[in-house]
Each structure stands twice: as C-alpha cells, then as structure tokens.
Specification:
Blueprint: H1 2-38, H2 43-49, H3 53-65, H4 79-83, H5 87-115, H6 123-128, H7 132-162, H8 167-198, H9 203-231, H10 239-242, H11 252-260, H12 278-303, E1 315-316, H13 317-326, H14 328-353, H15 371-378, H16 380-398, H17 403-426, H18 432-447, H19 453-484, H20 491-495, E2 505-506
Parallel strand pairs: 1-2
Length: about 525
C-alpha cells in the first residue's frame, strides 16, 4: 500500500511538472513568434535561427518593397496571468505581498507605539486626486469631441464618394479634410490642456486627464489612419466604376468599442472571449484599488518626508545625497507597482469586461538585456501604436527604408508627449525624465549587445533603480520648492527650476568631498 501511494504521488508530480513545462514552452514559443512578426530582425539573426533559403528570399523581397509586417491579434493571456499559474512564480508573488504587508505593519506599529495613533498615509490620495469630479467633466468633453470626429469623418467620406467624377473638386475636398483633421488634433490637445489648467486640477487628477487626452488622440489617429484607405478606393476609369457602392465604414458601435477596448491599434473586429468572468474582473479592479492605497502609503511615509522641507529650510549636501539614494528603493517599488496596476490589473480588468481576447499588454521586460529590448517590451500597447502609425508609415512612405530616421522620429514624438504630460501635470518644465532616459537610455541602447547578456540585465536594473531614485527625488524637490518658496510667476521661472535658487543646498563644513566618511 505504501509503495502504491508513493507511485501515485510520483505520477501526480510528473503530471504537474509536465503541465508546467508545457505551459512555459508555449509562452516562450508564442513570444518568439510574436518577436519575429512584430520586429524587423536583421539577416544575421534570421540566418542563425533558420537555414531556410525560401524564408530569406521572401525577407529580401519585402525589404526591397519597404513593407513591414502588421500587428496580429490573437486570443492570449497576459504573461503574468500565465506565470501565476505556475506555483513557484505564485509563491514569489505571495512573498512580495507579504513583504508589503510587513512593511505596512512595521510603520503602523511604530506610529502606535511612538504617537499613540495610526497614520495610514492617505493624504496623497486626498490631495493628489482632489477635484476629481472636474477631471471627469474634462473627460466627458474629450469623449464628446471624439464622437464629433466620427461624424466628421463620415461626412468627409460621403463627400469624397459624391465627388468621384470630379477629380479636381475631390482633391480639394480631401486636402480640406486633412487640414481640418490636423486642426482638430491641435485643438483637441490644446483644449484639453487649457481645461486642466482652467480647473487647476491637482497632480494626480491632472495626470489622469492628460493621459486620457493622449489615449484618445492616439485612438482618433488610429481610427482615421486605418479607415482612410477604405474611402480612397481609386480613380474612376470606366462607367463600371461609377456603379461601385460607397465604402462601408464602421458602425458607431464598432467605433465606441474601439475607444474603450485596451488597444491603440484599430481593427473592425478583434478576437473575443466566450464570456465575461466577473470574478476575475473584480479581483483585477480590486488589485488596482489596493495598489493605489499602497502607493499613497509609500509616498507619504517613505518618499515625501525626505523632501517636504525643501525650499523651507536649508539642506546639507550630504543630507540631499543620502535622501536621493534613499529614494532609489521606494522609487523602484513605486515603478513596479505602477506597472502592475496600470499595464496588468487595469487593462486586464477592462479586457475581461469587454471580452477582449488579446491581452499581450507587455512582455518580459524584466528579463531585458538591453535598453532597446526594454523599450519594446515595457509597454506593448503604446509601442504597437508607435510602430504601426509612426515608424511603419515613415519607414515605408517617407524615409524609404531608413531605419535610423524613422526610429529617431518615433523617439522624438514619444519624448514630446511624455514631457507635455509631465509639464502640465506639475506646472513646471523640468526635463529630468527626458535627459535620463533619452540621454542615458539612448547611450546604453547604442551599446547594443556589446556586453554579456547577464551583465546587460544587471545594467538595465541598476539604471532603473538609479533613474527612478533621481526622477522621484528631483521632481519632488522642485514641487516642494515651488510650494514653500516665494517667487514670481513668470515665464522665465516656469522653465528654470526654483529648487536651484530657493534656499538652495548648503555645504556642510564637516563634509569632505575627498573623504565623505570623515
């Protein structure tokens, strides 16, 4: 009987191991296929992977035509969703949760013993998300203008079809639409920013409204760019062409589904799941609420105390340096929790409610061995939009196959919108993120694979720790300096950091640069 039980346990263990291995191999195979489809691998890499001359000839032919592959949608889970099915990975997740609970209890017990009261650290939520109802009002205005754009596009399409026998008028009509569309995008972005400034929304509410502005602008361009070819069906060459029916444009229901589903790439239809798993969606949104509460706790109890006196009292250089290094760990924790909250929990929750099947919102960026790989894998949703509507269009139609020019244009556009969000959310110009990740990140990305992969992953994580510490420190210092200092609200002061001049850092005479431990 004992031998039989042992045999049964061995069979169960073998079954579990086989299932875990199959799942992991499936994930790795799917990632490999997606990498080959989505990214333009060079000839050397393809030769090392496959010795198929037919594949290479097709590759050369597509390169001559400067045609890049399209985004392919399919039913698939997010990577963490599959990884959490492996009990060893789930244990690591549980340990991370326990670590956060212990950190929370340690602070709460310390408050209770020292002050006799508990501070849950909810002030950043109360202050940061103040006037959130006004940000919802701004969002409603954005959604209304996007809906008007749908009818404006249909109006142009109908006019283009009616003028198919008058080429000159049709060309004028199309040029008028292009100018009107560009004016609409400029007015939409500037109007949204002016609304945020008019209502004087706090930082978190401003971030929410401005990120929605970027999302809706990207969705609008995706819809227009994807449906223009349906309208431009060609010139009239014979009487038979006059009998062709008008192009069928997407219905308003399809249009609205696209603007709420978690993708920025337009398709008339997407892979859909069979049913809504309300329990799964509930726990995803519960994760969002839990992460926001914990982020608020970290901000108030760990990060902000290092800088909330900046601009009010003079700070020694040694204290400032120690504060920056002390911000690296909580800053990286905030970075990881923000990724989990937005790109995993939030998007998967919406995908579940909308039965959206393709949930590859990110890839295994934590395994990246170079910054170019990290930029591709960190946020697949935005990367796909940049690839499809900026890089691909410029590569195929403008720069005639010049990758460097197309990549540079993508980088500049991405940097501009990142800075727009940060500038008008915090109300000052301080391009720390751009300098660190565009400057240092570009330099590290240019190194490519010149260093071993293991070292590359270590370097990537080290850069993230240092970069997050510097980012959170400098932005927080500037925010408190503008809050605590007296300064003139001029254009010059908008672009020049107040933290450089207001109660600046005082050199400690006991602190030696040659020997900082003296």
């Amino acid at each position: 009987m004992a031998l039989k039980r042992v045999q049964e346990r061995v069979e169960i263990l073998q079954s579990e191991i086989s299932r875990d291995v199959d799942r992991r191999l499936g994930i790795m195979g799917e990632q490999l296929i997606n990498e080959m489809k989505r990214f333009d691998l060079n000839i050397t890499e393809l030769r090392s992977l496959f010795r198929d001359e037919k594949l290479m000839s097709n590759r050369k032919e597509s390169e001559k035509k400067n045609v890049l592959p399209e985004k392919q949608f399919m039913n698939r889970n997010s990577l963490l969703t599959d990884l959490f099915e492996v009990k060893h990975i789930k244990t690591i997740y549980n340990l991370f949760v326990v670590f956060m609970i212990i950190m929370f209890l340690n602070t709460v017990v310390g408050d209770l013993v020292a002050d006799g009261r508990i501070n849950l650290g909810l002030s950043p939520i109360k202050v940061g998300f103040g006037r959130f109802h006004l940000s919802l009002l701004v969002w409603c205005g954005m959604q209304t203008t996007v809906t008007l754009m749908y009818y404006f596009f249909k109006f142009w399409a109908a006019g283009h079809y009616d003028l198919r026998t008058k080429e000159e008028y049709q060309k004028l009509w199309n040029n008028t639409f292009i100018v009107g569309y560009l004016c609409y995008l400029i007015a939409f972005i500037s109007g949204s920013i002016r609304a945020v400034l008019y209502f004087d929304l706090p930082p978190a509410s401003s971030l929410a409204a401005l990120l929605e502005m970027c999302r809706l602008a990207m969705k609008t361009h995706a819809y227009v760019r994807s449906n223009i070819p349906k309208v431009l069906t060609g010139k009239i060459k014979s009487d038979e062409d006059l009998k062709k029916p008008a192009p069928v444009l997407p219905s308003f229901k399809t249009f609205q589904y696209f603007f709420f589903c978690p993708t920025l790439i337009y398709r008339d239809s997407y892979p859909r799941t069979k049913e809504i798993r309300w329990k799964v969606a509930f726990f995803h949104f519960l994760d969002v609420i839990g992460v926001i509460l914990y982020l608020s706790f970290i901000f108030e109890r760990v990060l902000l105390p290092n800088f909330n006196q900046f601009g009010d009292n003079e700070i020694d250089l040694s204290t400032l340096v120690l504060s920056i290094f002390g911000s690296m760990m909580p800053g990286t924790i905030i970075f990881i929790l923000g990724f989990y909250c937005l790109l995993h929990a939030w998007l998967n929750g919406f995908a579940e409610v909308l039965r959206f099947g393709d949930r590859m919102f990110y890839q295994d960026w934590w395994n990246s061995t170079s910054f170019s790989m990290y930029y591709r894998k960190w946020n697949v949703v935005v990367h796909d939009w940049l690839y499809t509507y900026i890089y691909k269009d410029l590569y195929e139609n403008v720069f005639c196959g010049n990758r460097v020019a197309a990549t540079s244009a993508v980088f500049v556009i991405s940097a501009i919108f990142h800075e727009i969000v940060l500038i008008f959310a915090f109300r000052f110009f301080y391009p720390v993120l751009f300098i660190l990740f565009a400057g240092t990140g570009t330099f590290l990305m240019a190194l490519g694979q010149r260093y071993p992969k293991a070292f590359g992953n270590i370097l990537m994580w080290l850069s993230l720790f240092i970069g997050n510490g510097i980012n959170f420190s400098l932005y927080t210092m500037e925010s408190y300096a503008r809050r605590n200092c007296q300064y003139e609200d001029t254009t010059w002061n908008f672009f020049v950091p107040i933290s450089w001049s207001c109660n600046g850092v005082k050199l400690n005479p006991n602190w030696s640069i040659q020997n900082p431990f003296a």
